[in-house]
Amino acid sequence: MVASMTGFVHKAFQSQWGSLTCELRAVNHRFLDIYFKIPEELRALEPKLRQIIKENLSRGKVECFIRCQLDPSVSSSVSINEEIVQALGDAANQIATLLSVEGDFSVSDAMRWPGVVEGADVDWVPIHEAVEVVFEEAVAGLIHARMTEGIAISEMLRDRIHAIRHIVVEVREAVPTILLAQKQRIRDRLSELSIEADAGRLEQEMVLYAQKVDVDEELDRINTHCDEVDRVLLKGGAIGRRLDFLMQELNREANTLGSKSTDHRITNASVDLKVLIEQMREQVQNVE
Asked: Within 10 A of 52 (CB to CB), how many other CB atoms are there?
């Protein structure tokens, strides 16, 4: 199945200890790039959460935002580490004595010191377990969103491939008519100049002209690339890079077709092909 690289999912969880929210945002990227923004208390979970993403996604830039709000009954109480406060006061007085200045060590200075004010002893085990469950649900939701968009992209690509095949058929049908029209133009020009046409020379010129404007090879390659696009879409999986390569090849053949054109019908067909290919290429950039 074809998957897009873009998607968004939001998951929320409520419990006695508080609330938890998880947001995943994904956009297209050449490789798999994972970014986390989570509370420090949950930082130990990051390697495990990162591995969950790696096991499920192969390309895209994925931003992960996790927020944890503890219930006041769990986190409102605090305690003071008296030993650290006493040590800070003694150190401040000693420094003031050595410098022969009055100490100005304040209460706010003491409170900012790491370890002076300690929060309640929160049991983080059930919170960590909840984070893992919610995160796995979020990843599953992101995969579903990417698959849903991938289906739409796949249908769009198939529609464009069908249109390209139709243009190829029209060009093949037009080529014999173009050759006959060119032959008639040569006859008319010779007639205007009152020159009798040499049948052998005329046929020789038409053979050279036919070789010059022969586009069968380009049309065959366009059909081959279209077949490959259909095959890759049917296969699914991580096909973005393969599709991007095929878009380049299709564009190359469309350009060659235009360079060989001596008739407005082939020129128009070349332009139409490049428009369709460009539309596909823009969508392929989002395919995983």
From this structure: 14
Largest CA distance in the chain: 122
Structure tokens at 256: 């060659």
- Give the 3-state secondary structure of residue 64: strand
Look up tokens 């299709």; give the residue. 250
List the end-to-end C-alpha distance of the chain, in Å, as a whole number: 11
Cα 253 from Cα 162, distance rounded (Å): 17
Nearest-CA neighbor of 10 among 60, 51, 69, 66? 66
Give residues with Cβ within 8 angstroms of 147, minimum separation 6. 1, 2, 3, 4
Describe the crossing of helices 240-259 and 216-235 by its angle, rounded to 10 degrees. 170
Q: What is the pTM of this model?
A: 0.71
Which residues in 86-106 are b (16+ Cβ under 10 Å) and which e? eebeeebeeeeeeeeeeeeee
List the domains of the chain with CATH numbers: 7-74+126-147 (3.30.230), 78-119 (no CATH), 151-284 (1.20.140)
139: nearest Cα among 73, 275, 48, 245: 48
CB 186 within 8 Å of CB 210 = no
- CA–CA distances in Å: residue 158 to residues 151, 153, 274: 11, 9, 16
Residue that has been written with the tokens 């139409």 in this structure: 272
Closest CA to 21 of 121, 130, 141, 144: 130
Q: What is the pLDDT of residue 259?
A: 85
Question: Is residue 261 within 8 Å of 26, Cβ to Cβ?
Answer: no
pLDDT at position 264, please?
84
The whole-number pLDDT of residue 27 equals 93
Spans of the chain, pLDDT less than 50: none
